Amino acid sequence: MEWKLQLVSELTVEIEEFLSETYDCKQFTYYQKRPFQKILTHEYCIILVNDEGVIGGYGHLDFEKHVWLGIYIGEQFRGKGLSKIILSDLLVNGKKLGLEFIHLSVYKSNKIAIKAYNKIGFNSYKEDENSYYMKIKL
């Protein structure tokens, strides 16, 4: 199966349906606190679509005091390397946008994500009861 990155320029029914999966996800709570229309104000936002038109993943860079990275992989597509594709693209385009740092927060229970973020160079700089706060210098 072939996957292609697409820049998000509008909020489609397909994107809304994909993001509605996140309501039940304990590891990605971004849209539990914000409307889907927020997608249109991100600094940079992509989806990963397969050759059948199915969305497998989503990623964004958003400015809220710092530039924050958010990523979500559909449950049925996890463990297939999609997060690596999205993370790589977000970092490359963050650099093109002239960003110095990218931040993220990750739940302490999300061990797989923490390992992936550490592997590509994110470092923890703060923590609270539930989360680590990490950043990477571009």
Can you offer a commentary on this structure?
The chain is 24% helix and 36% strand. The protein has 138 residues and is of the alpha+beta class. The protein has one domain: Gcn5-related N-acetyltransferase (GNAT) (Aminopeptidase, 3-Layer(aba) Sandwich). The model has no long low-confidence stretch (mean pLDDT 92).
Summarize the structure.
By secondary structure, the chain is an alpha+beta fold.
Overall average residue pLDDT: 92
User: What shape does the CA trace take?
Assistant: globular
Report the structural category: alpha+beta
**CATH second-level architecture:** 3-Layer(aba) Sandwich
Instruction: Provide the succession of SSEs.
Output: EHEEEHEHEE
Give, in spatial order, the strands making up the sheet with the most strands: 1-2-3-4
Q: Which CATH top level class fits?
A: Alpha Beta
Question: Can you give the helix content as a percent range?
Answer: 10-25%
Proportion of beta-strand residues: 35-45%
Number of helices: 3
Unreliable residue runs: none
**Biggest sheet details:** 4 strands, antiparallel
Domain count: 1
CATH topology: Aminopeptidase
In total, the number of strands is 7
CATH superfamily: Gcn5-related N-acetyltransferase (GNAT)
**C-alpha termini separation:** 31 Å
